[in-house]
């Protein structure tokens, strides 16, 4: 950047609103969460008691925390590959120049992305309901089932159901990212591949994917971050139930901090500590991912 | 007669005769799309049925469409006022976010000063922090400023929550713009803010569109933050939280809830269909940038 030293005052003035906003809602909360994690603090109006690293020690042996952590990871590993592959497949189909209806298809597949998550949660709760829910109705009519499945009410089916709904909700966004990536593939690549009689899966795997690999990494990262922010979907569909079998970390934090269940007390310090620990674990995963992608970037 | 028979084919495939591959792909995708949007069709259909008709398990088309459900959702379930709250929060946060992040991104992208790389690194580090992580301090700070039960507080927090990524998008875009226009304006003695407003911001329109669309989606969809802030003041609930509360209070009123859902889906879907090109290009810009 050219060295422009004029008007430093205007420069700082321009930064003030953004920095104030970021300071209040981005930087301060992260530092404060780390600070609160060191206290026993049972409610917004009660005093805080310094307990050092006690909260973390308790988390280490809290089966609910690790259960929730495990479910967050299962959710991540269950959704991201599905979402990436199916959306890539659809994007490749839609990228076909001869497909005149591709804009219509794209719009329809994108619809769930713009739909509020809470609405999706409600509608899918009905669709999956064992009492007159249309999906169970269809399966019963087709003779595939003898009695309805309680998709969201049994601990065996609740996570796969949530993963399915999540993928349905966000697939359109990943598809748009893939389509943007596919646009960067030059036309003559396709022509050359055609001359070499390379098509279908081979074309995708050995010709297209290497070209769009930088995009693939960004898309992977965006999808992974998204899959960790599943609070609204799970909250509006199952509240983390039945019997905690869909309680991911964010629900665990919310439950600890705002104690929605009766007979439990709010533990703000403990919830903050859970957030910190989870954030650290995720940061480690992100760093690991960055190291791997840098290494693979160097090779090519 | 022949032209009459051919128009559907022309509509779907254009002037050229379709190859078999394209025809099969179209059919496959059409079937997929019908399944894909079934939840929306079901939602609209249910919102027009009486409670009795839903449980009889008839098809998608209601026998006699009724609008009662909409009236019930709009007034009894307060969807009307929640709708206004959501619009206020979305528009308010949109203005705040665009002004703050474009200015900050402009400075970060085009000027050098001490601590700049540290600031950028700090923003990058926060992009991956999940929402649940910061909700307690944010709520406490809003309480401190007496904003924790007000629409202002909700608007401010909604603006601040996702801004790191926008700042980085703006900074990245401004950085790669050529110097000449800006230099010429500086030579002419144009002030800093006027250069930003009249020269640089118009050049950054593609990324501004991206940011605006991402923020509209974020604000309209946001759930955790409005849920926490409206716990003590149900009057300022947004649509998302309102629907969630509706489910808790009236879990058997399927048609009322379907109507409430339709009310909160239709505006954003219409906006999307009208501005589709900008949505798609804008979101694609997030990956390219």
What's the mean pLDDT score of chain B?
Answer: 84
Instruction: Report low-confidence residues of chain A grouped into runs of 5 or more.
Output: none
Give the number of DSSP strands of chain B: 0
| Rounded radius of gyration of chain B (Å) | 24 Å
Q: CATH topology of chain B, what is it called?
A: MetI-like fold
Task: Count every beta strand of chain A, where a strand is a DSSP E run of 2 or more residues.
Answer: 2
Beta-strand proportion of chain A: under 5%
Kindly give the count of domains of chain B: 1
Helical element count of chain A? Answer: 13
Helix/strand structural class of chain B: mainly alpha
**Overall geometry of chain A:** globular
Q: How would a textbook summarize the main sheet of chain A?
A: 2 strands, antiparallel
End-to-end CA span of chain A: 29 Å
What is the CATH class designation of chain A? Mainly Alpha
How far the N terminus sits from the C terminus of chain B, by CA atoms, comes to 51 Å
Mean pLDDT of chain A: 84
Main β sheet profile of chain B: none
